[in-house]
Amino acid sequence: MNNQDNNNYFSGSKAVIESFLAEGVDTIFGYPGGTIMPVYDALYDYRDRVNHILVRHEQCAVHSAQGYARASGKTGVCIVTSGPGATNTVTGLADALLDSTPIVLISGQVASGALGTDAFQETNFIQITQAVTKWNCQVKRAADIPAAIAKAFYIAQSGRPGPVVVDITKDAQMELAEFHYEKVNFIRSYHPYPVLDKEKIAEAAKLINLSNRPLVLVGQGVVLGEAGEELKAFLEKSGIPAASTLLGLSALPTNHPQYVGMLGMHGNYAPNVKNKDCDLLIAIGMRFDDRVTGTPETFGKNAKIIHLDIDPSEINKIIYADVPVIGDVKESLPVLTELLAQKHHKDWIAEFKACYNIEYNAIIEPSIHPTSPQVRMGEVVSGVSKAYNDDAIMVTDVGQQQMVAARFFGYTRPRSIITSGGLGTMGFGLPAAIGAKLGCPEREVCLFVGDGGLQMSIQEFGTIFQSDIHVKVILLNNSFLGMVRQWQELFFDKRYSFTEMINPDFGLIAQANRIAYQCVEERADLEEAIKKMKAHKGAYLLEVRVEKEENVFPMVQAGASVEDVRLE
Amino acid sequence: MNKEYIITVFSENKVGLLGEITAVLTQRSINIESLTVSESALQGIHKFTIIVSTESEQIEKAAKQIEKIIDVLKAFVYTQDEVVQQEIALYKVTRSTNVEKLVRDHHVRILEIFDDYIILEKTGHKQDTQALFELLKPYGVQQFVRSGQVAIIKSKHELLDEYLESINKNI
Ligand SMILES: Cc1ncc(C[n+]2csc(CCOP(=O)(O)OP(=O)(O)O)c2C)c(N)n1
User: In this predicted complex, what is the ipTM?
Assistant: First the structure.
């Protein structure tokens, strides 16, 4: 060993790990390979301080890091090799960018001298990830590694969070350089926390105080800004009803008296159908995704719009804001609450409750207490939620099961739902559940996944086995790519083109991975099976054979106005 | 309605930034008519001058997205009347008495004279440089290049100065 190494002269690889420690990293998701081997070699000496999870596919390294970040509020960290290792992460990065999840991904790169020569496992990863990262950079000298990683963490977690990539050439990993770590908290060209405009807040307060039919739209910004209490104070003073986006769920407990349901394509009936009656919409940390607005031209057509968001580029992007309030909602909400008149909107909230009753009779009751011969998704979700006292972290994959799970699970505290919203990535669920459990070991983690989505990342059962991750996987098996089948039924004359699944024996797959397993086909066995799953110490796969052609309602058809939400 | 806009972007000097900035425009199908990059009056800060033609709503959103790029300091949008724009065009033209008459009549600058061709320079608006090209064309233009446009804003000083001052105050 070089004697310089004894002082503050570290290899670039060691500098990577030391930088992680300086940022408080305790868990890394990764997969080794040629150009990242020096970092893996350095990691060998840190096994007592850093928990490295060996995933089974690099896409899942990112999804696990996302689950970790969203459950814990910390930044998720991944390490992968160049070429195929790096390109495998692109879907994860895109998902993290759309859902504002803080991720730092370190990718190996061919030696700097070989850059641009089509060397073995060389891809231009900087260019590839430009469109799917908040920021990225390439490092070619060991001396530059600490500063690059410090900048990466600052950018990933500040302001509106997002994924960043630091691509490190192999020679930089091996070179020796003096190690000196300084956290970054200022970048001249980057202003993650805009200064509040008090005048705008005053204007917003005026609109709110004058409004008779206001509705709050809660987005993930409230969760990311840790502003749950500030939101509650705002709601309780103003008396305004609140609906949530998919990613905003759990910012407000489901049983809050002013909570009126989930927005969007498969959201609740009330907040969709009442949209046209609102005279004021107060959007808090949300971005008017098209799955929320339906056709934007008619969204909130009789309402003024107040838009609170930390990202100035979201203002007027989809929906024109009469009063934009740019800033961290944790800061802006209390200032706004100060200026509000104490009010209640009892009659107005009663109108939402009346709509809820319509939905309850038409959809909710038949979903959670069905009389149909086969088990339905809703009763499984509500059964599991109850068994865990509405207090588990609920992870979903994508499809029908995602929408049913989001609607029928109950939430009592923030960071209790982890789902792929913006990108809608099938295969997200299983790795995200692994990450969530590692990010919040003291909480129970329940994943709802379809038979299609499970098979997109089913190799992660291997990770669960090797790292002994105690997640509960509830497979809602309808032997269809259910959500696509539903669209085929409704909009393509029931032509079920390649959506039927002839599935493997999931029990054998569980067994092969030493994961406890039970399959339920009869309603009568469901409650007992859920109890057994809950009591089991360790990972569990509960397969439930559900109705094959159940449809998810309410539904706002693509291109329709939210007020035209269908109950059947 | 499409209208011509001048976007000036001030940024740190970072590899790959040009691609990131143009990607914001191409993703919205905004066609770039001219683009020049160089160091600005402030040392270490680069300035992009981008001329595009698009709708007012689009340009605002695009400018915000450009400004969102971490290494971008500031993006400003101007309309034609707010700036003085110029570009340089060079022409390599076969020598003839007709060409020499054109040069005299239009006050075109001669850069170099060779036995069988001359190199001319014209500074002005795109229309001016284009007009000269059309006049020269019948007499044999062997090469014609344009620099792309640069622009100076008419208001007192570059807004970036104020902006940099304000961040320095906030530190
Ligand atoms: C990677 C990826 N490929 C394709 C899709 C399109 N897609 C959305 S939902 C869905 C069906 C999901 O089926 P399954 O996982 O069985 O869940 P279900 O809808 O039956 O609950 C598909 C194919 C997607 N969202 N992601």
Answer: 0.88
